[in-house]
Amino acid sequence: MEGKKILIVDDDQTVASVMQLYVSNLGYQVVGIATDGKNAINMSRELRPDLLLMDIYLGKGLDGIDSAEIINKHFGIPIVFVSAFADENTLKRAKAVNPMGYINKPLRETDLKTTIEFALAKSQPGNKSELKPGTSIEDILVSLYSLTRSEARFVAKLIEYPELSVVAAALNISLSTAKTHLKRIYRKTDTNRQSVLVHKIVTGPAGFLIQRNYNQSA
After folding, report:
1. Residues 78/123, Cβ–Cβ less than 8 Å
2. Helix, strand, coil proportions of the chain in percent (round to 5)?
3. Max Cα distance, the chain (Å)
4. Are residues 169 and 74 part of one domain?
């Protein structure tokens, strides 16, 4: 997927510059930075990027969700939302546009990497990796973070039961094995504490995909 063209849309120049650095470091081509919805639409028409990284709140004029709807409808360009806002109403509006992902600010390069790769893979013509209704949380975690199946089951249980001893008992493994799983999962998800890990999964790209898949299957 390296060399794919990405358009960044963010009205904060500092955030946009950081995003540009991260995206370039990952081997993708940043074809431009748009600072508002109108520019995003015009640049999408002219540059035809492979993916948009779209902030939701863009100051005056069209916000990122309205802009994404227009871009999706007229140009068919996949979009990943990048935002510091994750309230219920915003998420509901965002999901209605069928984005390829949702990344919470502050940005982490690892979050960008996994979400961009996943979004570009899903958007390929004839791709079979689009999540089907009923796809499990374990499948999503394996796809996003390259966890093993047992690690993904562990994380799913950890979200349900925050006590490590309870998770170990539920999975019929020893506490020492649970701690070993946790260390490996920290490394793969770029986290270092249990609370940070759970928050990242629930509010980040995985949580967004899980919720979207649940809504599709409901």
Report:
1. yes
2. 60, 10, 30
3. 57
4. no
The Cα 194–Cα 210 span in angstroms is 20
Task: Identify the CA nearest to 65 among candidates 47, 29, 40.
Answer: 40
Q: What does pLDDT average to over the chain?
A: 84
On the question of a cis peptide bond just before residue 133, with omega within 30 degrees of 0, the verdict is no
Conformation bin of residue 10: beta by default, left when phi > 0, alpha when psi is -120 to 50:
beta
Name the DSSP letter for residue 132: P
Q: 107 and 33: one domain?
A: yes
Q: Which two tokens stand for residue 37?
A: 């919805």
pTM over 0.70: no
**Token pair of 22 as six digits:** 């991260």
pLDDT digits (tens, 9 = 90+) for 125-171: 544 444 455 567 788 788 778 889 999 999 988 888 878 999 999 99
Give Cα separations from 20 to 27, 36, 83, 107, 214 (angstroms): 11, 16, 15, 11, 32
Burial of 209 (0-12, 13-18, 19+ CB in 10 A): buried
Q: CA separation (Å) from 144 to 96, 131, 190?
A: 22, 12, 12
Stretch 209-218: mean pLDDT: 56
Q: Strand, coil or helix: what is 101?
A: strand
- The percent of residues above 70 in pLDDT, for the chain, comes to 86
Same domain, 71 and 104: yes
Q: What is the pLDDT of residue 180?
A: 93
- In this structure, are 102 and 31 located in the same domain? yes
